[in-house]
Design goal:
mainly alpha
Amino acid sequence: MASIIDENKLSVEKFEGAISVGMNMQQILTMFQMTSRDMDLWCMENYKGCNFRYVYELVRQLTLKEYFEAMKELGFRGNPSALAIINNAIQRLDGGSTIKIVFDNNGVDTESEEDKVND
């Protein structure tokens, strides 16, 4: 029987997935049993010569962009949970400062119960 450790081989998909769920750089190194130098070499090979730190930050920022766009869309639809989630996330990124988010729905109808079921 194979161990979960044996089954966890480094791939672009798993690497980007680890970043997208919020793992930090050290956790990723541990997860894939890599040294910083080995991860730099792997990233340079798989990401057009870019090192681990650069690729990590780029993927993290792109993931946050997608996350915020999804939350914004849900916010436009009037989803109160999405509004709370995005507000909390932005506060964490901003060091806990109080932030007021105002969505201008530009004529977009608020999400109804029927819309939620049909999504």
